[in-house]
TrEMBL record:
Alphabetically ordered keywords of this record: Pyridoxal phosphate
Name of the protein in question: Aminotransferase class V domain-containing protein
Record flagged with keyword Acyltransferase: no
Keyword Translocase appears in the UniProt entry: no
Residues of the signal peptide: none
Native organism taxonomy: Eukaryota, Fungi, Dikarya, Ascomycota, Pezizomycotina
InterPro entries: PyrdxlP-dep_Trfase, PyrdxlP-dep_Trfase_major
Amino acid sequence: MRKSHSVCVRETTPAECRCIDVTFPIDDALLIQLLRNAIQRVQQQGRNATIAMFDTVVTFPGVRLPWEGLVKACQDLNVLSLIDGAHGIGHIDLTHLARVDPDFFTSNCYKWLYTPRACAIFYVPFRNQHLIRSTIPTSDSFEAKMEDNVDTKDDIDGMSSVTQGPSRFGDLFKWAATIDQTPYLCVPEAIKFRTDVCGGEDKIRYYCFNLARDGGHSLAKILGTETMQNSEDTLGQCCFTNVRLPLLFNTERQGGLKCAEGPDVVKWIMDRALCEFNTWIPGKYYAGAVWVRLSAQIYLGIKDFEWAAGVLQGLCERVTKGEWRSPLEKVL
């Protein structure tokens, strides 16, 4: 959850957010224990820990979380689980989703399933569908609660209101007038393409996971740095790889990079990569270093990662020479 999300929750609801600070790389068992500890601290304070939100794959750094174990921790401590699976469907294996049994699960189809945007899924087990009261914006199928003192016989279309069960949940999302429905019509064709042309989900994952791993190692070797990985080698079980750039911060030498300059250096590198090399490589000043995230796709190969390494190596050399500073900053 981003800081802005927690601020919004506090401002618009009676709920409070407790964020767990995590610096990657971290082992899966420790991450799961951090969640357990955080929930138990809230409960020991006499408060009600209602719901925990976490990712399948984090956006940055691009690492896979042990979301199955995090769901189990929530179940053990009687807390609802909400999974932000934006980088989920079409990326990692979700065939065991029902068996893991999260309380709520969302995922974007346009990120990895090859559909146009915006297109997403929302998975809610039958037991929790009554908790979803409205779409955003509220759709024509919104129904008042039975206890509300309103006439619920017919809506403006003459349709009966206050239905129960899965049909009510489906009807709720049937027509939200501001949503473009056409991307959803592409889902069957996207799945067909991935099956008939690309060889199926298992082959896509096998190729992309291996390319991310091998491409990341190749890039790190060229740069003389490292990829981000934990001792269990689980963070990289996805289509992302994270590589540290060969830039040193808080150095004693004159003209060296200061930690406070990290975000500006990253912005300069990303801007130059886009404007001069027509490529977009997400980067971030993270844990005292600049890391970049690269994605593996079925249309890429190891040569593409080696090309990216050359681009990044050249940009880092220019940073070291001070080219990233404006003329005024160079004088100062």
